Amino acid sequence: MSLETSEADLERVLGAAAAAARPFAASTPAERAGWLTAVADALDAEAEELIALAHAETHLPAAPRLKGELARTTFQLRLFGEVLRDGAYLGATVDHADPGWPMGPRPDIRRVLVPVGPVLVFAASNFPFAFSVAGGDTASALAAGCPVVLKAHPGHEELSTRTGEIVAAALVAAGAPEGAFAVIHGVEQGVAALRDRRIAAASFTGSVPGGRALFDIAMARPAPIPFYGELGSVNPVIVTPGALTARGEAVAKGYAGSFSLGAGQFCTKPGLLLVPEGHGLEDTLREAVGGVARQDMLNERIAAGFANKLAELRAAPGVSSLVEGDRQDLGCTPSLLTTTAKEFLAGGNAVREEHFGPASLVVTYADQAELIEVLDTLEPGLTATVHGEEDEAEYVRALLPSLTRLAGRLLWNDWPTGVTVSWAQQHGGPYPATTAPTTTSVGTAAIERFLRPVAWQGFPDALLPEALREGNPWQLPRRTDGAR
Amino acid sequence: MSLETSEADLERVLGAAAAAARPFAASTPAERAGWLTAVADALDAEAEELIALAHAETHLPAAPRLKGELARTTFQLRLFGEVLRDGAYLGATVDHADPGWPMGPRPDIRRVLVPVGPVLVFAASNFPFAFSVAGGDTASALAAGCPVVLKAHPGHEELSTRTGEIVAAALVAAGAPEGAFAVIHGVEQGVAALRDRRIAAASFTGSVPGGRALFDIAMARPAPIPFYGELGSVNPVIVTPGALTARGEAVAKGYAGSFSLGAGQFCTKPGLLLVPEGHGLEDTLREAVGGVARQDMLNERIAAGFANKLAELRAAPGVSSLVEGDRQDLGCTPSLLTTTAKEFLAGGNAVREEHFGPASLVVTYADQAELIEVLDTLEPGLTATVHGEEDEAEYVRALLPSLTRLAGRLLWNDWPTGVTVSWAQQHGGPYPATTAPTTTSVGTAAIERFLRPVAWQGFPDALLPEALREGNPWQLPRRTDGAR
Prior knowledge:
Helix content of chain A: 40-55%
Oligomer: homodimer
Shape of chain A: globular
Largest interface: A-B, 92 and 92 residues
Number of domains of chain A: 2
CATH topology of the largest domain in chain A: Aldehyde Dehydrogenase, Chain A, domain 1
Number of strands of chain A: 19
Strand content of chain A: 15-25%
Structural class of chain A: alpha/beta
């Protein structure tokens, strides 16, 4: 039984978000930093209840997984507080009037980023905390100064309702305007909100078909809005000849652990291992993958979808099985398949698309030219990984232009399934990784998605926003007359 | 007779742009700064020929208009050279490995912006230099490291061809890769290029219907791409009660000059003047507008389109004429109309839409509440202007949230038709001002449109891009471990 927000409640939520937009935008970054910290503290205080709810609805292990994910989520809220106190995110820029400006006299002009307005966030199935009600999109939108309407994922709706209550109450108790945060339920309700003119931007984490459908709706509005969809990713991993020789078995074991982690339900799951032909790792892979315990998938719909895609992959020309996993209700054991680069290059969607679940495909390549040919035919994604040796720098350097085209994050001798939250993180990439390749949905730069620039020309100091006043009352890092 | 690029030539241009993308991306910012300067020098050297061509095709006065526009254009190219030498645009960020990172051990991760790939630029009709072949979109895309395919505007195609020859030759002579810049002609050719998978982003300056049609094509691609359309803007100007009393006549004269400048063919033309009812400026306005000399519009299509829209505005309920301009072939004298805020609020598209040409609408408001009501029903645009007195700070402050929602640039006691190129400039706004409200098409921040972030996790120094190496060989401003 899915929850559904009533039409009247949806109207009330959207009206409240619109009404909150101006007072919320008028808050100072320091105030919002305090509000985000208050939300983090409130969630931490209810950790036990929230983790139990999440476990019951998603079948993910309470520890370390859900406990770690909640810790990540509250850390993320606090980190955006640091972004606000730092102030550089505002991009405050002051150009004084300059009669000698080479293209002609320049007026006094000053630029700063302002909140875009109410943001609609579509929560993900696979991260009930970190990409859901109080997740990265919510944290970055609130940090930017935007009210948030959160469309809950039906896979964990009780958790979503409860988390939403805690977030909304903590915000109001800390002094944020009423109506700045609310959770809604229901597919149609989400679409209605996306079409509503009071919504100024939207974000989404999920599948390519689901995200594309919402993207298309956002773009077809009379007034299109930014839509930040984080969709699919195959996450290729390359094993160089040197790494194969030096530590092939260790790489094979790491790969088995990474692609089967969390029942393969990460957008950064390595879906392809590109390894030199004649690698001789078959037994190691069979043993490592065969030793992974059965794990429950998130829900029946996802488990069934995975089974269908896996059947297509198994039936694809030239693909053979290394480990044939099975399924009992939600519980799956991992599957590993293999093919050659030649078959892969001749293959269709079945070998090229993301398989959301515990399966991966080993592709053997004859030489560097064939490896590059495969890379250059892949669709862009979130990550691309190289396992190599430092003395192969020339070999790896030749791959880098292909890898840079292919992904938002490149990894060296590591696995893509861990995504830290930091200043330098990048979680994104060209379509179909995302619908907005110039942005990130993880890391401090995620705040940029919900800000737009406004320039103030010739205003008296008293009417300028604080960020742009001559005396720089917020002590912001600013660029002034071109100088940092 | 319109020029048309042949199918074979279009294929050659797109193939060359794709082939140039990697060598172009591999150039250093300092190299590209030199290339942009070489282009600027080459254009300046041919100024006489180019201005004559532009005048013949657009009917714009050679001096000061076209001469000034070319100076603006070459200045802009050189300013992006400064952006490249400054280096902050790369957003280089270094997070060292940190085992004590609160959410769990952090790997070494480093983020920098990279070029998106080949950019398709649709040139504008009304700025044959500054928003055309060597204009702001081209300058910012080349600065970012992206090859450019330039779709010429049919309103000045000989100029476009000649400018394109100069730009392409200057780039190659300065050392840029062959194929990094080319001009194409033809509506169908532009659409075919926009649909081509080798194009990674597109930009456009022009009308709402034209821009929306191209935006829809870009969004409907199998892999949608960023589309930066700068479309329409009404550019309201508010006269406060204080400004009316203190200097109403001067404001009226300034308004007449601004909306009729260049035959009203600026995207920043003030299309609405909001002035207190009973203003008593009718005679001043009639005299100032009546004294503006007849000016040629850009071409027959634009002149005819203007006449149609003006007829709709004249026929709109409650609208009356203050000055009835006329048209002789391309030559137009300006028209001024007036209505009340009440009629405006009850009115439809005819009073609310941009009229591209020498016409504007004076709207009288009863009080501040009615003024704000009008502002809050306007569609967003590029600019909003206030003519006020410093002792009215409270009155103006109450308008600012409405104005900030409404535009990308706010002006005080000035006119929006001048758009300086500088670090703080913002030329954009929510739809229909643009299709990308988080960006600008003028000013140094325009480069951000053509860059996407990539993070490098755990890479050895020798394999990192120069911008991210530990020794910071380019001496970039970087954020390291959260500290600026």
